[in-house]
Write a structure and sequence with these properties.
This protein has a domain at about 5-125: Immunoglobulins (Immunoglobulin-like, Sandwich), CATH 2.60.40. It has eight helices and 60 strands.
Length: about 1050
């Protein structure tokens, strides 16, 4: 059995081994074996490498087996020189990218040292010493490929096995400040928030929702290395991929850039579903610059950049607002009858007019915020246009210092800030925002900092160490429209505005009309602090390169967000109908001040959480023979459960039906959740060099991921939240009103849990981290300067984390739900127990084929095709004892990606004006073809009477030979199941529309001086304006069932122009 003592023992054993450089994900190695022309090894040869940008020189002798190794090398171009008395020296040039292990095996010829043999000046195309499956987004790709928003994550989406994520996952939301959209990338079937993001090897993971912490400017990025399978042992905490951004460093020459990118609405296409309304205005500017060079030649180097992003975009919305007569209580425009709910039986208001003396003053103040209709009619009679503004800035600064041949240091700081205002539909009135809808309208302030430092020391030619520290801080604050002002109190609503966190205006819901007030779930205030430290060593012994190291990531974060801090007041027709469902109007109910329902859920504290991630690893890269390298690794991780500084955590012991409060009644600070100490991950890989420039690589390994990353694991429940309601008016069912708008809301008070009621969030007490078995086998062959690869990649995951919406369901059947719930006997007043569980499984199997062309004759090309199938399990939404096996939400069967840069060769040597006009052109492009993602047909209204959702019966094959936007699948293949039963339709049995995208850019390079050039750019995203449709409406029994009504992540055609100066 795994426990803390066993964990300590493993750490002691690993730390006792020779240690390794955790920076291998940011640096590179040059390795080799020196022999004579007969193949005999040559000990004692002197190998010297030099970084051509910084003139940093390192020297080492070959050991008794003729082997040498230089590690912890910054990326860049190097010369390698080999000398031995009695032999002619040999020199080559190599280009290193992050994670490379480049082999140079010189065969020395007899002669004098002064004689020099220059071998090929190109780096090897094949990696012959590693089993890791990885992809490189090169500096040329980063700088030249068309990238919408200059967001480097969009380039990561181009690596084999990756795609853009889902509209119901990280890609959710349409606010421009929503970090989920700009962080979404799913790798090899994993969720798009299950990757490990790094900058220069420093943790860059925001843990609350799983987004990227800081994004450096495109002009600050040297390359991006993405490990997708068979990770080296120094890499952990991932289920998908390891995405490592490598920033630029300075050299002995000054280099830099200045740029501006510009877009406006004139060059953008309309949305496929919005062709009848004018395009919203757009003005977007992105500008900045970079500079790198020496502070002290051959010693100290710097690189710095700044970028600013300004955008103003019109947002158009069409909603329904009450007419001028309705606001005065006159409903004579309606054909429906308005009834007085205070009468028994209910009698109509004469002429459908409510007298002025009956009008509620609070309602009239709300109505003063409503604009008058802009068009005739009683529905969709107001068109609002307001500006959404966003200002972002990015700063990066890096310093590299070479103390001497044995000691080096780099320090980097990256900073992002963003200020956004997302408008509501209504115009502002006397300084008060009325709302009227929108996507969480209000102000958002974001700031993110990432600091990293690394010190490396060469103790001897066979022993190198590195010590690394880092810090990440992410602050996200989204505020309601009227945050900071006690508008509710000024309107006469008591009990709402108590402090800053409850300032603003209570949102009202008016069925059939636009609502008003602040957004329901705001404010959201999130602060992340992550500290990281690690130390490592590398020991070279014979053909073994033995690496090991250990470190700690300490995460502190707070997240304040209540379900409805200002409450929510709902109005509908039932308060003014005849008591039997006929007649009535929502605005009539509103002006009378008679709500149908009032509710409020408020967090009573500002939580501060902590989790720790200690780790240790060891790896032996063993050159077993001249053609075979074995990568043998072992990694150990611990991911501690959350604690809260004041023990404000509440859990549910499902087995005992007991409410657990952290720190009370002998309950642990983790609310009973045990630490998983079983995360021991062996990794075994090989790389074999075959004749004819062929490499076969493969392996098997385990990897662990902390499945409790999701915010539901924060366990916010009573008594640390205050829940009022939902309280429903008697008048909603034909009685006399007993809820009144003017009464506002009661003051928040701690909910008594001696008799638990309502909703309690839970996490399994024996929660286990997701364990992934990875395996792959690939073949790569170099042909005429190109590399073709093909192989199999797969994984099997157990202890997969799933969020179960409610385990306290009733069995399908007749009767009231509450007394039939699963915990009715022990927790009779509890209505919902959402559970974070780790009992599920998943598999992924893929074939990947790749083609890469290193730049030749001006053309660089990379392409890949992935054929894959992802499967997972989860509990049924109407019966948690039923485990469903289904195609994963991230099951993309087919995906083809092509990216290319082509420097047109025309008229390069032409004279004067001809050269100026016709030379220096470059074309760049990205093409993506992808099959659709799965979706589930579910009932629009549940029929099983379980308290959960359910699905209809499937009668036949719903696939259509020629699906259309109007009908994507055969709707007649589904029928309503009998009442009080669950249907037989499975989860994710259908796939949605495919996605096709072509992005192109055209550059004109103009040489200004020998070292300075002007670059003019035109970039077009989605050149063919091909819509990327969302999945269809799959809610059985609703209007539009089976039809597609929106587009997905792929934007309509957009054009962008830019000018850059490069020197």
């Amino acid at each position: 059995m795994f426990n803390a003592r066993w964990c300590a023992g493993v750490l002691v054993v690993i730390l006792a081994l020779p240690a390794a450089a955790a920076a291998q994900v940011t640096t590179a190695d040059i390795v080799g074996r020196v022999t004579d022309s007969s193949g005999a090894v040559l000990p004692g040869a002197t190998v010297t490498i030099e970084n051509l940008a910084t003139h940093d020189v390192r020297t080492a002798p070959t050991n008794e087996t003729g082997d040498y190794l230089f590690n912890l090398l910054p990326i860049g171009t190097y010369t390698v020189n080999v000398e031995l008395q009695g032999f002619a020296s040999q020199t080559t040039r190599v280009v290193l990218s992050a994670g490379d292990r480049v082999r140079f095996d010189p065969k020395l010829q007899l002669g004098q040292v002064q004689e020099s043999v220059l071998v090929t000046a190109e780096s090897p195309l094949l990696q012959t010493d590693t089993a890791t499956v990885s992809a490189l987004v090169s500096e040329k790709a980063v700088q030249d490929l068309p990238v919408s928003g200059r967001n480097v994550v969009r380039l990561v989406q181009l690596v084999p096995g990756a795609f853009e994520g889902l509209t119901n996952s990280l890609a959710t939301g349409n606010r421009p400040d929503d970090r989920r959209q700009t962080s979404a990338v799913s790798i090899n079937g994993a969720m798009d928030n299950q990757n490990n993001h790094l900058i220069d090897g420093i943790d860059n993971n925001e843990r609350s929702i799983g987004t990227v912490g800081v994004k450096p400017s495109i002009d600050a990025i040297a390359e991006v290395k993405v490990q997708t399978s068979m990770y080296t042992a120094e890499v952990g905490r991932t289920f998908g991929g390891v995405v490592n951004i490598i920033t630029k460093s300075g050299g002995n020459a000054f280099h830099g850039s200045g740029f501006e990118f510009f877009r406006n609405d004139r060059f953008d296409a309309r949305n496929f579903f919005a062709t009848s309304i004018p395009k919203p205005k757009l003005s977007q500017n992105q500008y900045g610059g970079s500079l790198g060079g020496p502070l002290i030649r051959n010693k100290t180097f710097f690189f710095a950049d700044f970028e600013r992003f300004d955008v103003t975009q019109g947002v158009t919305a069409v909603v329904t607002v009450p007419t001028a007569k309705m606001r005065a209580g006159d409903f004579s425009e309606l054909s429906t009858v308005i009834y007085d709910p205070t009468t028994t039986p209910r009698t109509p208001f004469a002429g459908n007019i409510i007298s002025s003396g009956r009008l509620e003053p609070v309602a009239l103040k709300y109505l003063s915020l409503y604009p008058l209709p802009t068009s005739a009619g009683l529905a969709n009679n107001y068109t609002g246009v307001r500006d959404r503004t966003q200002v972002n800035s990015t700063t990066d600064a890096r310093v590299d210092h070479i103390f001497d041949a044995q000691n080096r240091l780099f320090v980097r700081y990256s900073y992002n800030t963003g200020d956004t205002f997302t408008p509501p539909v209504f115009p502002i009135v006397n300084g008060i925002e009325g709302g009227g809808g929108g996507s969480f309208p209000g102000k958002n302030d974001t700031a993110a900092h990432n600091f990293g430092a690394s010190y490396s020391k060469v103790f001897s030619p066979s022993l190198v160490g590195e010590f690394r520290t880092g810090y990440l801080n992410v602050n996200i604050a989204s505020y309601g429209l009227n945050y900071g002002s006690n508008v509710a109190a000024s309107f006469g609503l008591p009990g709402v505005n108590i402090d800053d966190l409850t300032s603003g205006l209570t949102p009202i819901t008016l069925t059939g009309y636009a609502g008003a007030g602040d957004a329901t779930f705001l404010p959201l205030i999130q602060v992340n602090h992550t500290w990281q430290g690690s130390g490592s060593l590398t020991k070279i012994k014979g053909p073994h390169s033995i690496k090991g190291g250990a470190g700690l990531i300490n995460r502190n974060f707070s997240l304040y967000q209540s379900n409805s801090p200002l409450g929510t007041i709902t109005f509908n027709t039932t308060l003014t109908d005849n008591g039997a469902g006929s007649g009535g109007n929502t605005i009539a109910s509103f002006v009378l001040g008679y709500p149908q329902q009032v509710t409020r859920i408020v967090s009573l504290f500002y939580p501060h959480y902590n989790t720790k991630e200690p780790f240790a690893f060891v790896q032996d890269d063993w050159r077993a023979t001249s053609n075979l390298t074995l990568n043998l690794g072992l990694r150990y991780d611990v991911f501690t459960p959350y604690t809260e500084q004041d023990n404000h955590l509440v859990n549910v012991d499902i087995a005992r039906s007991a409410i657990l409060v952290a720190g009370q009644n002998s309950v642990s600070r983790t609310a009973g959740i045990q630490t998983d100490y079983s995360n021991l991950a062996p990794r075994l890989g090989f790389s074999a060099t075959l004749p004819a420039l062929t490499v076969v690589r493969g392996g098997y390994g385990l990897s662990f991921y902390p499945g409790n990353y999701m915010s539901q694991s924060f366990l916010k429940s009573a008594p640390f939240t205050s829940t009022y309601g939902p309280v429903i008016s008697n008048a909603a069912s034909g009685g006399v009103p007993n809820l009144f708008l003017r009464n506002g809301l009661p003051l928040p008070a701690a909910t008594d849990i001696t008799v638990p009621s309502g909703t309690f969030q839970a996490e399994e007490l024996n929660f286990r981290n997701t364990r992934t078995h990875q395996y792959n086998l690939f073949v790569e062959k170099e042909m005429s300067g190109n590399v073709v690869g093909a192989g199999y990649l797969g994984w099997k995951a157990d202890h997969l984390t799933q969020y179960i919406g409610n385990v306290d369901l009733a069995p399908a059947g007749p009767g009231a739900i509450q007394p039939r719930r699963a915990f009715a006997a022990t927790l009779p007043n509890v209505s919902a127990i959402p559970l974070v569980a780790s009992d599920f499984e998943g598999t992924y199997n893929a074939m990947q084929v790749t083609f890469q062309r290193r730049q030749q004759s001006g053309l660089t090309l990379s392409s890949s095709y992935t054929l894959a199938h992802a499967v997972q399990t989860n509990a049924s939404p109407w019966d948690v004892t039923v485990i469903e096996r289904y195609d994963s939400d991230f099951d993309v069967r087919h995906r083809f990606v092509l990216s290319a840069n082509y420097e047109l060769p025309f008229l390069r040597t032409a004279p004067g004006p001809v050269h100026a006009v016709f030379a220096g052109w470059q074309v760049n492009g990205v093409a993506v073809l992808q099959s659709g993602i799965p979706f589930t047909v579910a009932n629009g209204t549940a029929r099983s009477n379980t308290g959960g959702t359910d699905r209809p019966n499937q009668l036949g094959n719903p696939q259509l030979d020629n699906p259309t936007v109007a009908q994507w699948f055969d709707v007649t293949a589904f029928a309503a199941e009998p009442i009080n039963t669950a249907g037989n339709t499975g989860r994710n049995t259908l796939h949605g529309p495919p996605m096709r995208r072509l992005d192109l850019s055209l550059f004109k390079n103009v040489d200004l001086t020998a070292s300075t050039r002007l670059q003019l750019r035109a970039e077009v995203f989605n050149v063919t304006n091909t819509p990327s449709f969302s999945n269809p409406n799959a809610n059985f029994g609703t209007a539009g069932f089976g039809s597609i009504t929106s587009t997905g992540n792929n934007i309509p055609r957009q054009m962008q122009f830019a000018v850059k100066v490069l020197f």
